[in-house]
Write a structure and sequence with these properties.
Layout lengths: L1 H8 L6 E6 L4 E7 L2 H11 L4 H9 L2 E6 L3 H15 L6 E2 L7 E5 L6 E4 L7 E4 L6 H14 L15 H4 L13 H16 L6 H13 L3 H24 L5 E7 L3 E8 L2 E11 L6 H11 L7 E4 L7 H11 L4 E3 L4 H10 L7 H11 L6 E10 L2 E11 L2 E2 L5 E4 L8 H16 L8 E5 L2 H14 L5 E6 L4 E4 L4 E3 L4 H36 L6 H11 L2 H6 L2 H6 L4 H12 L2
Parallel strand pairs: 8-11, 11-12, 13-17, 17-18
Antiparallel strand pairs: 1-2, 1-3, 4-10, 5-6, 5-7, 8-9, 9-10, 13-14, 14-15, 14-16, 18-19, 19-20
Helix pairs in contact: 4-11, 8-9, 14-15, 16-17
Amino acid sequence: MDRLIDIINEAPETSGVYLFKNESKYIYIGKAKNIKNRLKQHLQQVSINPKEEKIFLESTHIEWLITKTDYEAYVLENELIKQYKPKYNVRLKSGSSYPMIVITDEEYPTIKISRQYGEFKGTYFGPFIPAKTARAMKDLLHKLFKLRTCDPMPVRNLVCFDYHLGLCSGPCAGKISKKDYQFDAKVAKEFLSGNVKNVIYQLYDKIQEYSNKLMFEKAAVVKDQITAIENVIRKQEVLGFSINEADIFYFMENAVFLVIIRGNRIIGKEILEIKGSMSDNPELSILTDYYSKGNLIPENIYLNKKLTQISNFKKWLKEFKKSDVKIFFEIPQEVRGFINRNLPEDNVSEELKSLFFDVFRFNIPRRIEGFDISTLQGKFTVGSCVVWENGRMNKKEYRRFKVKTVDGIDDYASLREVLFRRFKRYKEMENPPELVLIDGGKGQLKQGLIVKDALGLRNLRIFSIAKKEEIIFTDDGKEVYLYNYQPLLILFTKIRDEAHRFAIAYNRKLRQKETLKDVLSQIKGVGKKRREILYRTYKTIENIASAPEEELIKLGIPKSVAQNIKKYLGSI
């Protein structure tokens, strides 16, 4: 401490960034108009603020970088926090940005998914939450507007499989004019932006034009586009907001409720957990962290808290967006109702909290992780990790593991591998789970304790749960018969059953994929490439068996091979 006080006394009285650090990592990074005065404020807080005390106790040195202006300090602080991820700086728990759809600026535009605004030259839409909706939207756009799937676009005489699947209009082979293709790209942009009324009359004109030329197949494609667009219009009329484009941040104690509005409708919502604990202006730090990850910057940002010192943030946003962003410190009433209906609640009853403490002599944790192993005679061995958090299963936090180091049937070794891979992550988490539940008896509990001891995890409790008898075995030697405690029975069997379901689902998925490829390999003329095409398109043997022969031929499979496939699968 004395050494740090001496360093503070030597600090410059100018703007810049200061860094608390030790030999192995950065502890806290901040900025100040006057570095010396700000460091003295930290020091004065040590005796009354436990978090400030931890910063000083864990630091062995303080460094600083002098800047010409306060804005330069703001930008530098943000870059250093991104690079070093200090333990006590406030930031969002999610480590990356959300996916966006990009319609590229090219002669023949294509569709890309990006998590970094500006990564590709084009028009950006989104972000999409949850992330899987971006892939679903990309697939829908290819189906509706048939923008090319190849990248870069080749020049060739024969079209690819995606053309036959109706996912591409074949510009590479001259199957569509440049004018028509660029019109489709324009409509795709309007569809994503929600400004669909701007183009719908033009689409009706297209139908008439194609019909007059007896191009009925193209007219049918445009009709599908109109149907999709009219669905968007109906949704806007029912769910539409007066706000066209905005990100809305509703700050809570340890999290932020983010709502994304694009094209006058909500396209995503997410609860973002907050890491770290120290910041002069925590809400501003959260906003900076979110947009520094590459997320698209909207026209408007709405907050439920008033912020000070926001001028640097607005200037920083303008450098990326090239235009002013409006920031409001009150959430509109029309959106507030949606937020109130969707805010998470603490679903842990007082009865459960009290009973848990009475039985186990510690408070019910905020987060419990459940584990199970699934195998089929020693093959396709997998592990699951499910998460119970604040009274509900948090499926976004689930993890699955393909066991890599164990051959044959060895549940204990498989469990140790899965637990070791997962427990290692606990050492990096700021708020790791306090309790782990393993499906099994005393033997499974022992494997968990072996891994816990090997990794030196001190603040982790491990329970196991035996099926049928529904007994909890604890790491301190207790055996709790859950039928005597109904709320605990519901809690632990819910976590155990979900871990079991998740593990079996992954095991089944691997088996189905392998079985499909094994079956297809027995068919004459179906090599590795055709197996991949069939699997990507149909996923299951049943789907392939029911597919018309003409559809298989459209995939580029020769007629004789298609007949072999139908004949072989028809005999199974």
